[in-house]
């Protein structure tokens, strides 16, 4: 088990201390794992207090929602374990007053028993207490009666509505009615790509095959109602929305609020994709999503997966959803972009070359087209090897990037080869658009600089080609700041450019000079295996990058090798 913790038995208290340290509107009770709002009025002048909680491991719930406009207190049990009735009673005593207390409880046996018992004890002390139980898990609609469903992420929206109602000064009965109505109307469902690991256990609660997922699960690491094959984000959203619609709480014509919730280790990138799909699907079903939220709101430790919660809302509900909150974890906002998320920017126009359809391709243009074709084939064939090398010290995307660049070369129209300079310039433009990361700008700059060197030259000489190659390499160095010895593509390209110049100065045939240049690039690439990286992502690894050649240098050698046969004809 790898966890960023100190001791498993201290995780709850240390987590709560961290939350309080980042939230000036809160404090932690000395002898209990309870977070409370600070700055509360004297008991007799307090508004209705809202208390929620349960087992820890659902962060940011529930401590992250303590603050003006939301929860007044949160009670934390051990991980996935309900807090004791005495702890809940302590929270009631700490924040309650004559206006009363509303307990918002997720529908799990331990939570219902302990919060329920605490409510009875508080009532015996003269504190008015109401309870609202959230049982929003639509995945169980065919399995258990409605009152026995689990409470999952929809609970957070109940917190929000009830917290705003209490902040407006509404009486306990009205706050409880608003919370209860929301709990009755909300439907949620979760999907998991894997289990979670409890700090005290040290291993996942269940295991899944490489292509398996759990559908309709709770928030405590337990399996779902069924297991199925992994599907796309859009398909999984459709599955969840289908279930929520079948639950019968939302219908065509409704205004709804949508909560896209990560279960613990789902990155924002994936949550945004899920939100996109959910918004579109609900709109297609004739519902209007008037508020939408995406993030990790109620998790299951480090579980990968998501849940959707959909709540039909009234104008009064929207007022409560929009009420300001000073709680660490509530994101605010929630307004959905209805104005059209896509705009079109007029493309940059450039003068069309005369007679493109009838352009004459000279010998030099035909030769360059052959060179580009050979380079492209070599880079496409080397995709896996470049990905492997790049994965040693980077993100492993170089192979795919160079394949896209190769396809860009192959897509150049015949008219582009009406001159060498034009072909290089258009290749630079296409490569810039096709190659992601740093390689795209480097190669685009190199091609543009070479095109400038050869502009106006119909049939470049050997010296012209060598000069253009040297300019291209210098452009990469100018743009990125790399020099020989930095363990980059320059360690292959700079020796090649220098060797080509030296060889031509010795009056040897161009084909021989080019072959020697490629050999110099290969030697330079090999030397990078023993270099300490000084630039790029590999520099973050230090000595760990030693032992394999730089991926960028390897890519340069691959396309340089591919040109040898093409240039053999030039002598």
Model description:
This protein is of the alpha/beta class. Helix content is 43%, strand content 13%. It contains 17 helices and twelve strands. The strands form two sheets. Strands 1-2-4-3-5-6 form a six-stranded mixed beta sheet, sandwiched between helices. Strand 10, helix 7 and strand 11 form a beta-alpha-beta unit. Helix 10 packs antiparallel against helix 11, helix 10 packs antiparallel against helix 17 and helix 13 runs antiparallel to helix 14. 51% of the residues are buried. The model has no long low-confidence stretch (mean pLDDT 92).
Characteristics:
571 residues, alpha/beta, six-stranded mixed beta sheet, 12 strands, elongated
Task: Please write out the topology.
Elements: H1 11-21, E1 26-28, E2 34-37, E3 49-56, E4 73-79, H2 85-95, E5 101-106, H3 109-124, E6 129-134, H4 155-167, H5 172-185, E7 187-192, E8 212-215, E9 226-229, H6 233-246, E10 255-262, H7 268-284, E11 288-295, E12 305-312, H8 315-321, H9 363-381, H10 383-393, H11 398-410, H12 420-434, H13 439-454, H14 462-480, H15 490-505, H16 510-527, H17 551-567
Parallel strand pairs: 3-4, 3-5, 5-6, 10-11
Antiparallel strand pairs: 1-2, 2-4, 7-8, 7-12, 8-9, 10-12
Helix pairs in contact: 2-3, 4-5, 6-7, 9-11, 9-17, 10-11, 10-17, 11-12, 12-13, 13-14, 14-15, 15-16, 15-17, 16-17
């Amino acid at each position: 088990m790898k966890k960023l913790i100190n001791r498993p038995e201290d995780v709850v208290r240390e987590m709560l201390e961290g939350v309080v340290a980042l939230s000036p509107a809160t404090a932690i009770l000395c002898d209990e794992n309870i977070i409370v709002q600070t700055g509360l009025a004297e008991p007799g002048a307090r508004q209705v207090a809202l208390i929620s909680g349960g087992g820890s491991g659902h962060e940011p719930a529930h401590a992250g929602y303590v603050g003006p406009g939301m929860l007044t207190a949160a009670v934390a049990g051990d991980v996935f374990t309900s807090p004791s009735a005495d702890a809940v009673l302590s929270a009631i005593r700490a924040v309650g007053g004559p206006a009363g207390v509303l307990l918002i409880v997720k529908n799990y046996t331990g939570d219902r028993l302990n919060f329920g018992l605490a409510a009875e004890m508080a009532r015996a002390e003269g504190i008015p207490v109401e309870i609202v139980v959230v049982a929003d898990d639509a995945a169980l609609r065919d399995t258990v009666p409605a009152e026995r469903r689990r409470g999952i992420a929809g609970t957070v929206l109940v917190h929000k509505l009830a917290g705003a109602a209490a902040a407006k000064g509404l009486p306990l009965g009205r706050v409880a009615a608003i919370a209860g109505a929301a709990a009755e109307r909300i439907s949620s469902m979760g999907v998991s790509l894997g289990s979670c690991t409890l700090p005290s256990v040290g291993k996942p609660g269940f295991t899944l095959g490489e292509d398996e997922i759990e559908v309709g699960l709770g928030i405590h690491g337990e399996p779902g109602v069924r297991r199925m094959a992994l599907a796309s984000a859009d398909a999984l959203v459709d599955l969840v929305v289908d279930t929520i619609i079948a639950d019968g709480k939302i219908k065509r014509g409704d205004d709804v609020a949508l909560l896209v919730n990560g279960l613990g280790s789902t990155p924002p990138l994936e949550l945004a994709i899920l939100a996109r799909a959910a918004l579109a699907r609900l709109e297609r079903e004739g519902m209007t999503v008037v508020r939408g939220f995406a993030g990790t709101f109620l998790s299951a430790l480090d579980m990968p997966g998501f849940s959707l919660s959909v709540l039909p809302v009234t104008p009064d509900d929207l007022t409560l959803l929009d009420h300001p909150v000073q709680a660490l974890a509530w994101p605010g906002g929630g307004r959905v972009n209805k104005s059209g998320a896509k705009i079109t920017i007029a493309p940059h126009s450039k003068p069309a070359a005369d007679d493109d359809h009838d352009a004459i391709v000279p010998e030099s243009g035909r030769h360059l087209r052959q060179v580009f074709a050979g380079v492209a084939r070599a880079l496409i064939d080397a995709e896996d090897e470049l990905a492997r090398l790049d994965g040693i010290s980077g993100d492993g995307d170089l192979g795919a990037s160079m394949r896209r660049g190769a396809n860009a070369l192959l897509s150049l129209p015949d008219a582009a080869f009406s001159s060498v300079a034009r072909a290089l310039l258009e290749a630079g433009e296409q490569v810039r658009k096709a190659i992601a990361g740093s390689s795209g700008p480097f190669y685009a700059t190199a091609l543009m600089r070479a095109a400038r060197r050869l502009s106006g030259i119909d049939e470049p000489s050997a010296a012209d080609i060598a000069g253009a190659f040297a300019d291209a390499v210098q452009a990469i160095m100018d743009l990125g700041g790399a020099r020989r010895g930095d363990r980059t593509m320059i360690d292959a390209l700079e020796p090649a450019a220098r060797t080509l110049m030296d060889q031509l100065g010795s009056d040897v045939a161009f084909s021989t000079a080019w072959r020697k240049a490629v050999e110099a690039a290969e030697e330079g690439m090999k030397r990078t295996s023993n270099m300490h990286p000084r630039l790029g992502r590999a520099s973050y690894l230090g000595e760990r990058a030693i032992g394999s050649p730089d991926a960028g240098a390897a890519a340069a050698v691959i396309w340089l090798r591919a040109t040898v046969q093409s240039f053999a004809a030039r002598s």
